[in-house]
Every structure is written in C-alpha cells, then in structure tokens.
Specification:
Blueprint lengths: L10 E10 L2 E11 L4 E5 L6 H9 L6 E6 L2 E2 L5 H7 E4 L11 H6 L14 H13 L15 H14 L4 E5 L7 H18 L2 E5 L3 H7 L2 E6 L2 E6 L1 H4 L2 H8 L1 E7 L6 E8 L10 E7 L6 H9 L2 E9 L3 H8 L4 E4 L7 H13 L2 E4 L9 H5 L10 E4 L13 H11 L3 E3 L2 H11 L15
Parallel strand pairs: 3-8, 3-9, 6-7, 7-8, 13-14, 13-16, 14-15, 16-17, 17-18
Antiparallel strand pairs: 1-2, 1-4, 4-5, 9-10, 11-12
Helix pairs in contact: 4-5
Length: 440
C-alpha cells in the first residue's frame, strides 16, 4: 500500500534557494505539484533541474525556502520516512554486483524495515508486482548485469516502485535509451500517474517526450522558473529561442493536438554575430517583409512578425525561418485573436520594423498597432516606396505613418540602412535563458 496523501499538493516548494558559494543554482522556486500529476522539468544543462530533484531528495541542502512532502516539512523527516514518501530513478546506475533481479528490486523495501530485519512475504509480493509492472517478470532470476541498458533502467524503475512511495522523481531516465525504450519507459511512468495516482516529477531533456507524456511542463533557466503550464501553452518557438538559443518550427500532431518542435538551427550567424540580438518584430504583408526577415535572420536576430495573411509569401517566409507570427485568414479583416497575438509579439520585441507594405482598410490596424510602442521601442520605417504610393485608405495610413515618424520612428531607405541602424539603436538583446514572465 502507498502512504496516504495529505490534503493539498503532494509536493510543495516555497522560495527554494540553493547556492554553492557565490553561485546561485536555484533562486526562489515556488512550485505546487498535485497528487497524480506528471510534471516534466525542462531546461538547458546547468539550469537547476537536478539540483531541484536532489534538494527534494535531501541530497542537497537548500540555502533557503521550504520543501513539504505530503504536507510534512521535509527537513523534519528521517531518512526512512522520506524514502517512504519519495522514490528515485537516477539518470544512470551501474550495479557492481550481479545480484538476482528479484533481490535487486527488493532493495526498494529497505525503508520499511530495521537494519537486521529480513524481507517478508509481503515484500516479495510487492517486488514481484513491481517487476510485472515493468515487464520483467521473466527475468526475475537473472543477474542484474545480464540485462540490456533498457531492461536495466526498467529494473531501476521497478526498485523505485517497490518503495510504494506516492511521489516518484526521475532524473533524465531516458538519457541513454533508444527511441523504443524511451517511449516504453515514459508510457509506463504515464500510467503510474494516470492509473496509480503517483505524483511524478521528471527532469527531461527531450521536449517532445515531455509534451507527449507530461501533464505539465516547468522550464528552468539559470536557476529560475521561466515557464509553467500545460505543454500546449508552454512549448513555443519563442521559448526555445529564448531559453535554448535554438530556432525551431512548432507543429501539432493532427491526431492528438499535442505540440512538437522541429529544431532548425542555432541562433547564430557568420562573422560571429551573437545569438542574443532581438527579438525584432517585423510588420509587413504582400511580400514586403520577406527580404527583411531573411536579411535579419542572416544577421543573427531573433524575429517575430504579424499580422500576416495565411498563404501570403511573407507568412510562408516566416514559416520557413521558424519565425513566430500572428496569422489571419486571407482577405479577411484582422480578427481579435490575430490582433491579440500580434500585440503579444510586439510587447516581447526589443525593436520594431515596419516594412513597406500596401495598406488597405483590412490591414490598417497592422500599422496602427505600432503607435503605442513609439518612444517605448526603437521603431524603423522602411520608406521605399513612400507611404503615399501604397496608401489605399484615403489618407488614413499616411496620417498614422506621419504620427509614427513624429513620435520618433526612423525613416530608412533599405535593408542595409536597417542593419546599420539596428547596430546603433538596438536591440541590445538579452542572453538566451534570461528570466522572463512565467506562462500561466
């Protein structure tokens, strides 16, 4: 039997801080994990995932904050009491002795006995059930060293299951497994949460695995929590660019709706341009933004774009470059969803570029959306051809354009002038992985 869980979250972290001398590994992590939830911890190497798990396990002493396990302060629990609440699957374990698999799994029962106590019939029954849960019943009599890498990792999971703890922590458990064994292991862990009510917290490198199996993803960067929520809300191309420094194409499985990311390239450019520039938001349409997007991407800038009509050549360029964009139906006025998305991208931008797009009644809002940002962001107006030659709104577009210029937007002739202007005026950029507001 698993210990009963107290009211409230199975695991609670409040202001958790870990420092090694002057280096802060975790900075004020607040986290509640409900009973039966599968939470994936994601983040680059050195982001604090393993430190967080080791703190919960009691292997690393926090510098501040609090940890509660099933409502009890973790620091007041004896080792055996903590082991009855938390089971652990490390990234890799290399057994020294070739013990029988059945005996190896029985190690998980040590938390329930004194040092000199022998295992009971109930212990053996629990270990047998754990082996069955991971599909290794037929190997119970074999030595642990005779198992393959995938089988051995399942054996480590079986030993953890034999603890019958209500919380299971895993640290990159699929790091050395092939694709088939990764899917197998995470499928079994997913069923533990869904069918057995076990609370799962797993450090995961593969974001696509996290999206497929986890209920929730928490992203750490430089010891800080930068995103937290359901996979379809947390996983974005912007997140991968900001935290991992990677350009990625975000797609959705048509059968399940689950998001998945296809990495395209590092955010870098020839000549040593740092991958910390941007993001720059490009306002365009009708093919006007494509040369700008291509040039700035080659210069190493992170980009966004919008609002662009679906099937427009600018939208296709944005998709090919994995540039986040606000998209609207062709020939339709800008709707509330596209306008909201465009505003989000404008807010996130460090500079704004208005491409020389034809302005009509249906996309006039695209130009007007830049007005609130003049004076708050560097704004460039690519002015060839001039606005008068592409104003199809009876002069309203020209009026907005002149207001932008009067407010401090810079008129520029071409992409070369734009690149030179950006190097002087901004954006200074922010290091990939710098703290950002958490997703909710």
């Amino acid at each position: 039997m698993r210990p009963s869980t107290a009211a409230g979250p199975a695991l609670r972290l409040t202001g958790l801080r870990v420092a090694y001398g002057d280096r802060v590994a975790l900075a004020g992590i607040d986290l509640d994990v409900p009973t039966g939830q599968f939470l994936a911890l994601a983040g680059p190497n050195g982001s604090g995932k393993t430190t967080l798990l080791r703190s919960v396990l009691g292997l690393t002493e926090p510098s501040g904050g609090a940890i509660e396990l099933l409502g009890a302060p973790a620091g007041r629990l004896r080792v055996a009491e903590r082991a009855r609440r938390i089971a652990w699957v490390p990234q890799e374990e290399s057994p020294r002795d070739d013990v029988r698999l059945a005996d190896y799994v029985l190690y998980g029962r040590f938390a329930y006995h004194g040092a000199l106590d022998a295992e009971t019939a109930e212990d053996r029954a629990i270990a047998a059930r754990a082996l069955a849960e991971v599909g290794l019943s037929d190997r119970a009599g074999d030595g642990i060293l005779s198992l393959s890498g995938g089988e051995r990792q399942r054996a480590v999971l079986a030993r953890a299951l034999a603890q019958t703890a209500p919380i299971l922590l895993l640290d990159e458990p699929t790091a050395h497994l092939d694709i088939a064994h990764q899917l197998d292991l995470f499928g079994r862990v997913r069923r533990l949460a869904r069918d057995g009510g076990v609370t799962i917290v797993a450090a995961v490198h593969d974001l696509n695995l996290a999206a497929r199996f986890a209920d929730r993803i928490v992203v750490l960067s430089h010891g800080r929590q930068v995103a937290d929520g359901a996979p379809d809300r947390v996983l974005t191309a912007e997140l991968l660019a900001r935290v991992w420094g990677i350009v990625a194409d975000l797609r959705r499985d048509p059968r399940t709706g689950i998001p998945y990311l296809i990495p395209q390239t590092l955010l870098s450019a020839p000549g040593g341009v740092p991958p910390t520039l941007g993001p720059v938001h490009v306002v365009g349409g009708g093919g006007s933004a494509s040369p700008v997007l291509v040039r700035l991407a080659d210069e190493g800038y992170r980009l966004s774009a919008g609002v662009l009509p679906l099937l427009d050549s600018d939208a296709e360029t944005a998709q090919a470059l994995a540039v986040p964009a606000a998209i609207e139906a062709p020939f339709a006025p800008i709707g509330s969803a596209a306008a909201k998305r465009n505003l989000e991208l404008l807010e996130a931008a460090r500079a704004i570029v208005v491409a020389p797009f034809p302005v009509g009644p249906s996309n006039l809002e695209n130009l007007a959306s830049v007005l609130p940002f003049v004076g708050r962001r560097p704004v460039a107006l690519l002015d060839a051809p001039p606005i008068a030659a592409r104003d199809f709104t009876g002069g309203r577009a020209t009026e907005i354009y002149e207001r932008l210029a009067a407010g401090g937007a810079e008129r520029l002739a071409d992409a070369d002038a734009l690149v030179a202007w950006l190097k002087v005026r901004g954006p200074p950029g922010s290091a990939p992985g710098a703290p950002a507001p958490a997703a909710t």
